[in-house]
Amino acid sequence: RAHIRRRHPSEKGRMRTRSEDGVFSVHAIAGTHVVVFGLDVKGYNDRSTLGSTDSTEELAGAISRIALGDDVVGEGLPTSDAKAAPSGVIFAGFAIDRIEAGDHTVSLNRNGKPIQKFLWCDNTALPGREYVYTISRMKSVEEGDFEPYGASLSVQVTTENPNDPNSTHGVFFNRGLTGARYVKKFGSHMKYHMLNKFGDKVWKQVINPRKLDPASSKEAREWLSRGLEEALIGFIAQAKDPTYRLLGAVYEFTHVESIDAFAKAVERGVDVKIVRHCKGSYRPKKGKNGKEWIPDSTTESAAKAIDSQPFAKLEDAHKWQHGTFIERKHASGISHNKFIILVCNNRPLQVWTGSTNFTDGGIYGQLNVGHIVRDKKVALQYHQYWTSLAKDIPGRRHAGGDGIQPMDVRNEELQPDLSGPLPLRSIKVMFSPRPTAKMLDWFAERVGEAKTIHFTAAFGVSQPIARVLNGTAAGVSSSALRRSPRLLKRASTLRDGCLRYVLLDNKPSLKTSQKLHQKKPGMVDYYDFRSNETNKIAFGALLDKGSSSEDESLTGLNTFVDFVHTKVLLVDALSDEPLVVTGSANFSEASLEKNDENMLFVKGDTSLADIYLTEYIRVFEHYYSRDMYNRFVSKDEDSDRAWGEPVTDESWTVPYFDPSTQLYKERLLYR
Length: 671
Fold this sequence. Notes:
- By secondary structure, the chain is of the alpha+beta class.
- The chain is built from 19 helices and 26 strands.
- It is 29% helix and 25% strand.
- A 7-stranded mixed sheet has the order 9-19-18-17-12-13-16, sandwiched between helices. The chain has a 7-stranded mixed sheet with strand order 20-26-25-24-21-22-23. Strands 1-2-3-6 form a 4-stranded antiparallel sheet.
- It is globular and about 85 Å long.
């Protein structure tokens, strides 16, 4: 008999719901904008009834995870020749309906086609809403036609409300995806723009939301921001009078709306103090003797944006220009923080942190998160750190010393390096720079011990973590694994049942990898650990032009990181004791030893883990399916398989019930 698990009043914000009968089951996980479904059916445990799994079928199974766009629901697998079904009914997939307030029912299947996935996301949910989902199986009735059959299951969920003032955490992810849906909504504005990419000027066809007419620009930016910009400005707006202070630490600082929000706070009499990155170099003066200091591009761009802010009163303009910004010149690396502390009557109350730079690209482009912590103890720790930053204390001790305790020592005293698992229901904060990068070993230990991880690495994977992903932490060399399929298989089976998700900004360069291996023998990177069957890896990608009928476009707002900029590690997110790590730091040596950074560690908060997990799956599925489809088309250029069309037989189920595949592990993990 099917059942609905309803949330108990004591389970505020938690929403993991299961429903099952003797035929199939549903596990629903609700975040803010996303509800994830782990689906399973019984009776397919013997995969021999469906035939063996070959490489083409496994690739097809991966493509069945296609996501057509953030607001387009219903996914499928490219068309193939039908096989003989093991029974009279051809199980073609699932039908999912969402029942909203007023009993309004929305079908989440695209054009009535089945969802041919056992892990699927509804990316169109809204925060703070109650939904009932009904899930049915679908069968093929004739070529290209499908209909539901058998009993359905129902689950009721409540999405999280990040603006709830009584909640410790408020989490806001931007859309972070453009793709086909962006083109469908704003494709008439696609034009070639001269962009700065890695220091080079190139022409790219993009849809820049700042270059549209005013009405379309506003609509596009709201769609891309997905609540992130509104939350940031709303956080600043909480400082409503002179009893408040806003204490910030920023790296890139050019977003007009954010700067205007800070300026309006100044006009309200709020004491605004912002520590900003300020670096440059001394260069010979042109045509003159001596040298002059030239700011780097980040410093110069921020200065221009700050100077461009208008004021109604001269006294406010003077306060803005001479009493608001503190130049951070003596950081040992870059001043990479992106946080704000809300203070009232000299008591720190809340913190805004995360990965989001105060730029158009940070808010409307690459994937980012803004994270509000409504905890006075955490806010006080950030305030202590900010006070040292505001004094521009050197990041590390200079040779010979100057009698001033440097930032790395101060940060170590605020929070020593962690040792072992964190206690349940705890929040830890860690600041950089630090005396050493030993915390990378701590992260590697958590990755090695976990049943599952979800990890984003915008700028590559550090060696301690890469070695664990590669299965080499126990003394097996990377080169040996590359040469020996037997050793690689053994390393994978040592973590049988484990599945580790790694999301990169882009596919690493093979030439760069080869050069690094020559320079540093024994190092481990993507081209080593990608072969480990416990690792499922995705990276930012668009559908190749010409390989699909769907056009896709970026915003053109990002110079270096186009797709994924978050710094997130989720450890055993599906358990009752998940660990969420988030902040500004990139899990690298530089982020620990040199840069000004902050990281937040939260253990045992399932509501928070569900928000991060559902957003992670949303983005991972989007990019993984595109990479798989691009690979599939490049492998079979004459294929007539269309993007998003389901198969009419049961071949799509094969890899989900083959114990040798990642899809099999994934089905068991989320069901």
